[in-house]
Amino acid sequence: MSHPVPPPLLVRGATLPDGTRADLLLADGRVAALDATADAGRDDAEVLDAEGLVVLPGLVDLHTHLREPGREDAETVATGSAAAAAGGFTAVLAMANTSPVTDTAEAAERVLDLGRAAGLVDVQPVGAITRGLEGHELAELGLMHRSRAGVTVFSDDGRCVADARVMRRALEYVKAFGGVVAQHAQDPDLAGPSACCHEGELSGRLGLPGWPGVAEETIVARDVMLARHTGSRVHVCHVSSAGTVEVLRWAKAQGIEVTAEVTPHHLLLTTDELVGYDPTYKVNPPLRPSEDVLALRAGLADGTIDVVATDHAPHARHDKEHAFADAAFGMLGLETALAVVATTMVAEGPFGWDDVARVMSTTPARIAGLGGHGRPLAVGEPANLVLVDPTARVTVDRDASRSMSRNNPWHGRTLTGAVRATVLRGVVTHRA
Ligand SMILES: NC(=O)N[C@@H](CC(=O)O)C(=O)O
Ligand SMILES: [Zn+2]
Ligand SMILES: [Zn+2]
Predict the structure, then answer these.
(1) What pLDDT, on the 0 to 100 scale, is given for residue 41?
(2) Which residues are catalytic?
């Protein structure tokens, strides 16, 4: 595909993640100059005033549900890409639980092409681990990897690969080409088919069937041992419990190849949200008590949890607006992720912006093997970046979303930090 060459862009007066100030000249899709006088001799450059703004490498989301094909009433690749760009992302991994499931090379290439047609972020398909997400027969892992889509991340997300033998085979298979198996850790026997929130005192009071953190922890414990046994890489999706953080800490100390993500909602929201039975807060894994939230923040701060991933999960009104027990699981996340991380980990936490760049760009790009993303802001690197106003206070309005769906748990909340511009290969994909 041929792209028109974007005009040169001068990002003036930005603060780099390490706190230093610089001008960045972007030309031919790359960082052409980076210093205090980058504008010298480039009168043709369009100027982006970045005074007071932090510049980060474009964000990379390891866990996005774009719903196309199959549920274009909830989201399309185009609307999800627009939401991603508005959230500061330049690349997203599109989960495989679409209809049909992304379990063939053709299906993966179709998602890749839809992403290219939308043109706002790089959409990298995740391949299913098993055919139809059924948990039994391995999908075409090798063919998906060798296809134009170059799939390296495989996940049955939405469902847990409960059969240890299947998980072992998947790990062995992807090892040959350096792939990674991303697990939705939820033991179906321990969690039960109707579980819809955290199992605890509150679920009893509300009369809702719950599932305990141990249903996640036992799967993660099993999977890290399978990763050790096979010498392959496992990634744990949306960690929600303190016990899982302990398992991960132990596994990493052993040198086991495991990485893990936490979602913005699990970093800030707790079971307290459930008292009003609002299905917006129904999500898998469920919101947990504040002890878990604090352990997740500590795990992210000390590197036990590697990345923040959104698990952006749009749902149409007719799937979400039901009694709590009957509503779909999942909540939006792309447009608010950076602000939630800025609020919980920077404004009220131990993170610098270099840490944000690490957990939302550099490390997710490395886990997914996305060469052109998560690169340092340096001369010669692809011009993928986001400009952030670090002190802006923004009250979230779900109706201002680019997503087609409205299941936004942050509606009406005021967060610190706002995305002002997103740039993909030198082209502005979002400006606010
Ligand atoms: N997180 C959710 O509650 N739902 C996700 C599936 C998933 O991430 O497990 C979805 O596809 O809607
Ligand atoms: Zn999941
Ligand atoms: Zn998910």
Answers:
(1) 55
(2) 311
Surrounding residues of ion ligand 3, Cβ less than 5 A: 157, 311
Question: How many percent of the chain have pLDDT more than 90?
Answer: 96
Q: Provide Rg for the chain, Cα atoms.
A: 21
Tell whether 184 is in a known binding site: yes
Task: Determine the atom of ligand 1 nearest the C-alpha atom of 328.
Answer: 12
Please give the pLDDT value at position 231: 98
Task: Say if residues 261 and 157 touch (Cβ distance below 8 Å).
Answer: no
Q: Measured between alpha carbons, how far is 334 from 360 in angstroms, rounded to an integer? A: 12
What is the structure's pLDDT at 409? 98
**Mutate-to-test residue for ligand 1 from 63, 65, 320, highest number of ligand atoms within 8 A of CB:** 65
Kindly provide the ipTM of the predicted complex, given to two decimals.
0.99
Which ligand is closest to the CA of 320, given by its number? 1
The answer on whether 411 is annotated among ligand-binding residues is no
Task: Please say whether the beta carbons of 399 and 49 come within 8 A.
Answer: no
Q: What is the pLDDT of residues 201-241, one digit of tens each?
A: 999 999 999 999 999 999 999 999 999 999 999 999 999 99
Domains and CATH numbers, the chain: 9-54+381-396+412-431 (2.30.40.10), 57-368 (3.20.20.140)
Q: Which residues of 232-246 are buried (b: 16+ CB within 10 A; e: fewer)?
A: bbbbbbbbbbbbbbb
Atom of ligand 1 nearest to the CA of 186: 9
- What pLDDT score was predicted for residue 355? 98
Q: Give the pLDDT confidence score for residue 261 in this predicted structure.
A: 99
CA of 254 to the centre of ligand 3 (A): 28
User: What's the CA-to-centroid distance between 113 and ligand 2, angstroms?
Assistant: 24
- Spatial separation of the C-alpha atoms in residues 408 and 136, rounded to whole Å: 34
- The Å distance, Cα 62 to ligand 1 centre, comes to 13
Report percent pLDDT > 70 for the chain. Answer: 98
pLDDT in tens, 30-61: 999 998 666 655 778 899 999 999 999 999 99
Pocket of ligand 1 (CB under 6 A): 65, 97, 157-158, 184, 283-284, 311, 313, 329-330
In 311-425, the DSSP E strands lie at: 385-395, 414-424
Contact partners, residue 15, CB within 8 Å, separation at least 6:
21, 50, 52, 53, 54, 55, 353
